[in-house]
Write a structure and sequence with these properties.
105 residues, two-stranded antiparallel ribbon
Amino acid sequence: MRLVFVCQTCGCHYLVPPALHYPDGGRASAVWCSVCQAAAARRGAPEPAGLAAVAVLLAVRALKAALAARDRQHRDQPRPDRRPTRPGRTSRGRTRPTGARTRLA
């Protein structure tokens, strides 16, 4: 699973590469989506370091919570590769005649 961030300018949700670096060498932002990041670069506005750290921490916390919920869900479901257990036997077959129980010998 990957980290999901919320853009602090427009409010959209976006995914970034795991190392916060794009394949072309550019750095991904934990604060702004790519459109808002390009607009901030044109204005010359630097990315707020404190806000970026908080955004990364919140995204990691949300990822851990999602993984824990998924693990709890999988733990509660029966495994598909196992046969269901046989139900308990409620009535036993009689091994002797019914009259033999009440008769004192």
